[in-house]
Specification:
7-stranded mixed sheet; mainly beta; 119 residues; globular; 4-stranded antiparallel sheet
Protein backbone atom coordinates (compact mmCIF):
# COMPACT_ATOMS: atom_id res chain seq x y z
CA UNK A 1 0.00 0.00 0.00
CA UNK A 2 1.40 3.37 -1.03
CA UNK A 3 1.52 6.00 1.71
CA UNK A 4 1.20 9.69 0.90
CA UNK A 5 1.82 12.19 3.69
CA UNK A 6 0.86 15.82 3.09
CA UNK A 7 2.13 18.82 5.03
CA UNK A 8 2.25 22.58 4.74
CA UNK A 9 -1.38 23.52 5.07
CA UNK A 10 -2.52 26.38 7.26
CA UNK A 11 -4.29 29.71 7.39
CA UNK A 12 -3.31 32.72 5.33
CA UNK A 13 -4.82 36.01 4.25
CA UNK A 14 -5.92 36.59 0.69
CA UNK A 15 -2.97 37.35 -1.54
CA UNK A 16 -0.64 35.23 0.56
CA UNK A 17 1.26 32.07 -0.26
CA UNK A 18 1.56 28.52 1.01
CA UNK A 19 3.63 25.55 -0.07
CA UNK A 20 2.22 22.06 0.29
CA UNK A 21 4.42 18.98 0.31
CA UNK A 22 3.54 15.34 -0.22
CA UNK A 23 6.02 12.62 0.67
CA UNK A 24 5.44 9.26 -0.97
CA UNK A 25 6.57 5.90 0.38
CA UNK A 26 7.73 4.89 -3.10
CA UNK A 27 9.67 6.44 -5.94
CA UNK A 28 7.14 8.33 -8.02
CA UNK A 29 9.17 8.76 -11.20
CA UNK A 30 6.90 6.53 -13.31
CA UNK A 31 3.62 7.58 -11.72
CA UNK A 32 1.36 10.57 -12.02
CA UNK A 33 1.27 12.77 -8.95
CA UNK A 34 -1.57 15.18 -8.46
CA UNK A 35 -3.28 17.55 -6.07
CA UNK A 36 -7.03 17.68 -5.62
CA UNK A 37 -9.09 19.73 -3.21
CA UNK A 38 -12.47 19.53 -1.57
CA UNK A 39 -14.35 22.43 -0.06
CA UNK A 40 -17.21 21.90 2.43
CA UNK A 41 -20.34 20.77 0.65
CA UNK A 42 -18.58 20.43 -2.69
CA UNK A 43 -17.18 17.56 -4.70
CA UNK A 44 -13.48 16.83 -4.82
CA UNK A 45 -11.92 18.73 -7.71
CA UNK A 46 -8.70 18.55 -9.67
CA UNK A 47 -6.02 21.16 -8.98
CA UNK A 48 -2.76 20.11 -10.68
CA UNK A 49 -0.87 17.04 -11.86
CA UNK A 50 2.59 16.08 -13.03
CA UNK A 51 4.01 13.02 -14.75
CA UNK A 52 7.50 13.06 -16.27
CA UNK A 53 7.60 16.40 -18.11
CA UNK A 54 3.84 16.75 -18.47
CA UNK A 55 2.11 19.22 -16.19
CA UNK A 56 -1.51 20.29 -16.17
CA UNK A 57 -3.50 22.72 -14.04
CA UNK A 58 -7.11 23.49 -13.37
CA UNK A 59 -8.12 26.73 -15.03
CA UNK A 60 -8.97 28.25 -11.64
CA UNK A 61 -5.35 27.97 -10.42
CA UNK A 62 -3.40 28.38 -13.66
CA UNK A 63 -0.75 31.08 -13.23
CA UNK A 64 -1.04 31.09 -9.43
CA UNK A 65 -0.13 27.52 -8.44
CA UNK A 66 2.96 25.53 -9.41
CA UNK A 67 3.37 21.78 -9.07
CA UNK A 68 6.83 20.25 -8.93
CA UNK A 69 8.75 17.22 -7.71
CA UNK A 70 12.11 16.79 -6.01
CA UNK A 71 15.12 15.22 -7.70
CA UNK A 72 14.77 12.04 -5.67
CA UNK A 73 11.33 11.53 -7.15
CA UNK A 74 9.51 10.87 -3.90
CA UNK A 75 8.07 14.26 -2.97
CA UNK A 76 5.64 16.47 -4.84
CA UNK A 77 5.06 20.11 -4.03
CA UNK A 78 2.31 22.61 -4.67
CA UNK A 79 3.39 26.23 -4.45
CA UNK A 80 0.29 28.36 -4.06
CA UNK A 81 0.57 32.10 -4.62
CA UNK A 82 -1.99 34.90 -4.76
CA UNK A 83 -4.36 32.79 -2.70
CA UNK A 84 -8.05 33.62 -2.73
CA UNK A 85 -10.80 32.80 -0.22
CA UNK A 86 -12.28 30.41 -2.80
CA UNK A 87 -9.08 28.35 -2.56
CA UNK A 88 -10.13 27.32 0.95
CA UNK A 89 -10.41 23.53 1.03
CA UNK A 90 -8.83 20.31 2.18
CA UNK A 91 -6.03 19.57 -0.25
CA UNK A 92 -5.27 15.95 -1.09
CA UNK A 93 -2.18 14.45 -2.64
CA UNK A 94 -2.82 11.64 -5.10
CA UNK A 95 -0.81 9.05 -6.99
CA UNK A 96 -1.87 6.96 -9.97
CA UNK A 97 -0.68 5.22 -13.12
CA UNK A 98 -1.63 8.04 -15.52
CA UNK A 99 -2.53 11.72 -15.61
CA UNK A 100 -6.19 12.30 -14.93
CA UNK A 101 -8.47 15.03 -13.67
CA UNK A 102 -11.05 12.56 -12.43
CA UNK A 103 -10.81 11.60 -8.73
CA UNK A 104 -12.51 8.25 -9.37
CA UNK A 105 -9.58 7.21 -11.54
CA UNK A 106 -6.97 7.79 -8.82
CA UNK A 107 -6.20 4.76 -6.59
CA UNK A 108 -3.96 6.30 -3.93
CA UNK A 109 -4.72 9.26 -1.64
CA UNK A 110 -3.15 11.12 1.23
CA UNK A 111 -5.07 12.08 4.35
CA UNK A 112 -5.47 15.72 3.30
CA UNK A 113 -4.28 19.04 4.68
CA UNK A 114 -6.48 22.05 5.39
CA UNK A 115 -5.87 25.34 3.61
CA UNK A 116 -7.87 28.33 4.81
CA UNK A 117 -7.70 31.71 3.07
CA UNK A 118 -9.36 34.64 4.79
CA UNK A 119 -10.44 37.83 3.07
Amino acid sequence: QVQLIESGGGSVQAGGSLRLSCAASIRTKNYAMAWFRQAPGKEREFVAAIMWSSITYAESVEGRFTISTDNAGSTVYLQMNSLKPEDTAVYYCALGPFLTRLPDQVPNWGQGTQVTVSS
